[in-house]
Amino acid sequence: MSRVFFLLILREARLLARRPAELANPLVFFAIVIALFPLAVGPETQMLRTLSPGLIWVAALLAVLLSLENLFRSDFEDGSLEQWVVSPHPLTVLVLAKVFAHWLFSGLALVLLSPVLAIMLGLPADRVPILLASLLLGTPVLSLLGAVGAALTVGLKRGGILLALLILPLYIPVLILGSGVLQAALQGLPTLGYLLWMASLMMLTITLTPFAIAAGLKISVGE
């Protein structure tokens, strides 16, 4: 199974390399939202620093959501999903590899871009490691939860709005914890508790969501 997992990640890397716009769109959206915000509210450093935790996390959440509508779309259209469903390999492992590849080439890039944008908002440089840790723990959760909605709506022509309605309520705990750990860091309060909760949430989603994604795909392909 480890070989199948690795081969599927390589396949996804090749497919994403042929569609660079799918990788660039969430990053461009993330950067534009944060870059335009100081123009709207003014360049006052203290106010931007106060608002930066919520802004960074809302922008990251929407950027991840933007990239999820087409997560399984091409596989559904070319019949790959039907082959996955009837494959002797566990569907949960296949979808976990798919989501991991998606996060590796889009979510991780978003994490690496965030320090530059955070410093632009006035976040102190010594708080950037907390930002990186929170995004590294939180963005996989966003991708996994979003993949559940993507699996349920993959057969719909215009499933983007329905996907958002299904997934946004599930994103609320991640948003609260992610922005909360940054606010605690800015106020000089302990942040370990927030990070441990986010790590627990990540492990819970890695354990449970592959089963929900697999069930959603079976419903979508009519198996």
TrEMBL record:
Q: What is this protein called?
A: Heme exporter protein B
Q: Give a short account of what the protein does.
A: Required for the export of heme to the periplasm for the biogenesis of c-type cytochromes.
* InterPro entries on file: Cyt_c_biogenesis_CcmB, Cyt_c_CcmB_bac
Q: Which family does it belong to?
A: Belongs to the CcmB/CycW/HelB family.
Q: Where in the cell is it found?
A: Cell inner membrane
User: Transmembrane ranges?
Assistant: 23-42, 54-72, 100-123, 130-154, 160-182, 194-217
Pfam families, alphabetized: CcmB
Q: What is its main location?
A: membrane
What taxonomic ancestry is recorded? Answer: Bacteria, Pseudomonadati, Pseudomonadota, Gammaproteobacteria, Pseudomonadales
| Topology in membrane | Multi-pass membrane protein
Question: Which terms are listed as keywords in the entry?
Answer: Cell inner membrane, Cell membrane, Cytochrome c-type biogenesis, Membrane, Transmembrane, Transmembrane helix, Transport
Q: Which domain of life is it from?
A: Bacteria
